Amino acid sequence: MEPFDTQVVAANRSYFDQDAPNYDTQEGCITNRAALRLVADHLHRISGLLQTRFPSQSLRGLDAGGGTGNIALQLRAYGITPDLVDVSSEMINQYLMKLPSDVRPSAKTVCSDIYHYLTTTNENYHLICFSSVLHHLADYRAIVELASSRLIPGGIIYTIHDPCKKNAFWHKMEMADYHLSSAQLFRNYLRHKIMRSRNYPMRTADIGAEPHVEPGIDDEELHRYLNRIGLKIIWHERYYTARTRLISLLHRVAKRPRGFSLAISR
């Protein structure tokens, strides 16, 4: 698969331009407290590593596919100056609205797919983050490898909120989790099923925007691939946390991880 696919990029741009105003109130990795704690813990650990490795440097980060800037805002809290790149101008606008007015003019944002940004930029980073991004990419392995070329030696790539490889049953559980995660989404879903209403305001991602969401990502294979190309795995963690407690519990009882996180270094 090619690292850049025009149709995948167009589908993501269309989906997130429409979704931007509601993204922070309906996306599980933002509304779920356990998911938020997981990311906060990871970024705390990464910040400590970077401060140890680069004690006298001003740290720079890239929030790749950064959307409404939830990762970028946390990087700022750790003193890491973030650039945010996203394919959706509407998502970027949501991020900028969160910033204080005196910070907004100096905040670097780029509206671009991540492939073209990484292949054209001259910037190098101490930290590159992919949060809920890999499953939206045509070839996530190629993009992670490309991102590693923009790391300062000793820098870190961090990934989180991508689904593990799954079968048809667990994909159905993922969809159930999605509908249960918001009361409004659930009401709309029931209305659609019971009343057969075709006109209902429900988040429905074009499957073209998430080419790897149904099969999930083979994180073990990705781990092996990154080792083969000479990258160091700092951690490879799996977790049960889903959007809702019910589906999280189901994953835990079945001992079937829902997602994974990687921290990778040059």
Can you characterise this structure?
This protein is an alpha/beta fold. The protein has a single domain, classed as Rossmann fold (3-Layer(aba) Sandwich), CATH 3.40.50.150. It is 46% helix and 19% strand. It contains twelve helices and seven strands. A seven-stranded mixed beta sheet has the order 3-2-1-4-5-7-6, sandwiched between helices. α6 links the parallel β2 (81-86) and β3. The longest helix has 21 residues, at 33-53. It is globular and about 55 Å long. The model is unreliable at 199-205 (pLDDT under 50).
Question: What number of domains?
Answer: 1
Please count the beta strands (DSSP E, at least 2 residues each): 7
CA radius of gyration:
18 Å
Strand content bin: 15-25%
Structural class: alpha/beta
Q: Identify the strand order in the major beta sheet.
A: 3-2-1-4-5-7-6
Helix content: 40-55%
**Could you name the CATH homologous superfamily?**
Vaccinia Virus protein VP39
How many DSSP helices?
Answer: 12
Question: Uncertain spans, ≥5 residues at pLDDT below 50?
Answer: 199-205
Helices and strands, in order, run as HHHHEHEHEHEHEHHHEHE
Quick one: biggest sheet?
Answer: 7 strands, mixed
CATH topology: Rossmann fold
Distance between the termini: 24 Å
Shape annotation = globular
Please write the CATH class name.
Answer: Alpha Beta
Q: Mean pLDDT, as a whole number?
A: 89
Oligomer: single chain
User: What would you say the CATH architecture is?
Assistant: 3-Layer(aba) Sandwich
